[in-house]
Design goal:
By secondary structure, the chain is α/β, with parallel strands linked by helices. The protein folds into 2 domains: 7-191, Rossmann fold (3-Layer(aba) Sandwich), CATH 3.40.50.970; 271-375, Rossmann fold. It has 14 helices and 15 strands. It has helices at 13-24, 38-47, 61-73, 84-89, 91-99, 129-132, 148-165, 175-179, 246-261, 264-267, 287-301, 319-328, 342-347, 368-375; strands at residues 7-12, 26-31, 54-57, 77-82, 104-112, 118-122, 141-143, 168-174, 181-186, 270-273, 280-284, 306-311, 313-315, 331-336, 355-359. The strands form 3 sheets. Strands 2, 3, 4, 5, 6, 7, 8 and 13 form an 8-stranded mixed sheet that branches. A 5-stranded mixed sheet has the order 10-12-11-14-15, with helices on both faces. Strand 5 (104-112) and strand 6 form a beta hairpin. Helix 1 (13-24) crosses helix 2, helix 1 (13-24) runs parallel beside helix 7 (148-165) and helix 11 packs across helix 14.
């Protein structure tokens, strides 16, 4: 049995994520059970053996991500899934994956925190953590779906971006989307673009494992393919050999950051809804964006020119589109299921007196009426 056949299915968000991973070519999953992400591991445990893949339940989240990193270096497309507390344990390894340029997908089904918090309740309290989990200068990519269909689509996108840029990619999903059941369409294979990592085109004797091409991404040889190289989290030169001098550190870290920063416009995704003439713009992501869309329609019926900017790529932050919206709008409303995380990013590009913030803590997103009340207060 291979990937699910094209068609319309009624799936849970976590299950849609797992099926999309298989379709994208994922054949290795290592994880540790944690609410509300456990269904991803459960489904992968069933499905991966059916497609010739490997599922391993590890002893904890640290071992899970390191196993996935190792599998990636063996040529497997690899994934792990967790929630906030588990993501915290993965922090050092995320930095290692960024430093070693290891393609990897990490799914974080966000629940209420801090600490153990609310295991069965949804939130968006991890959106800064997923960007800044590890120490040092590095860049990763973070995507945020707002529906089960998008959970499916963005999982494939996450694998493609990870393979293209040799970087960890995080799918940051609030628990509502992860546990929602909705109809989704699985398209025919010819409609799906699958990206695989670049391979070296030089003999082993000439291969420099961390020498980038013009796109700042080095071709990646897998272990056991006849190439000899060192994989280290230490500052290293193009051979992979540790070097502690300023020039090597500057060259390496700038490239690790710039391969994402200089491709920001290509990487970032957002959705604009009725923004053309909007005086009031709601900025939201994930489940709150669904309430916001309905609130925009309701506001329009009341004669308020409202619109929605839905962030799909959280990191790198889509600053150009936010700048454009902030310049034109008279009032910006930021809706989040936290106590103020992405609103601070919006404030970088907009005067504070233009911004209203609607935080929600607990299990529920902002309601339509709550958003309407904020829209009409200025």
């Amino acid at each position: 049995m291979g990937a699910m056949k094209p068609g319309i299915y009624f799936l849970m968000g976590d299950v849609a994520c797992a099926e999309a991973a298989i379709l994208a070519g994922c054949r290795f999953f290592a994880g540790y059970p944690i609410t509300p992400a456990t269904e991803i591991a459960e489904h992968m445990a069933k499905r991966l053996p059916e497609v010739g893949g490997i599922f391993v339940q590890m002893e904890d989240e640290i071992a899970s991500i390191m196993a996935a990193i190792g599998a990636s270096w063996c040529g497997w497309k690899a994934m792990t899934a967790t929630s906030g507390p588990g993501f915290s344990l993965m922090a050092e390894s995320i930095g290692y994956a960024a430093m070693t340029e290891t393609p990897l997908v990490i799914v974080d089904i966000m629940r209420g925190g801090p600490s153990t918090g609310q295991p069965t309740k949804a939130s968006q309290q991890d959106v800064q953590q997923v960007r800044w989990a590890s120490h040092g200068d590095y860049e990763i990519i973070v995507l945020c779906p707002a529906s089960v269909q998008e959970m499916f689509n963005l999982t494939i996108t996450a694998f493609n971006l990870s393979e293209e840029y040799r970087v960890p990619v995080v799918l940051a999903v609030d628990g509502i989307v992860g546990h929602a059941w909705e109809n989704i369409r699985i398209p025919p294979k010819e409609e799906i673009s699958i990206v695989n990592r670049k391979k070296p085109h030089v003999p082993p004797s000439q291969y420099l494992p961390f020498k980038p091409d013009a796109d700042m991404v080095p071709p990646m040889a897998n272990l056991c393919e006849g190439y000899r190289f060192l994989i280290t989290g230490l500052t290293h030169d193009e051979r992979g050999m540790p070097r502690m001098d300023e020039e090597t550190q500057t060259t390496l870290v700038r490239r690790l950051c710039d391969k994402i920063r200089k491709n920001k416009e290509k990487i970032t995704r957002s959705e604009e809804f009725l923004l053309e003439d909007a005086d009031v713009v709601i900025i939201a992501y994930g489940t709150p964006a669904r309430s916001a869309r309905a609130a925009v329609r309701a506001a329009r019926k009341r004669g308020v020119k409202a619109g929605l900017l839905r962030l799909i790529t959280l990191w790198p932050f889509p600053e150009n589109v936010v700048k454009k919206v902030a310049k034109k709008a008279k009032h910006i409303v930021v809706c989040e299921m936290n106590y103020g995380q992405m609103v601070k990013e919006v404030m970088r590009y907009c005067t504070e007196d233009k911004i209203s913030f609607l935080p929600k803590l607990g299990e529920y997103p902002p309601t339509i009426d709550e958003i309407l009340q904020v829209i009409t207060q200025k």
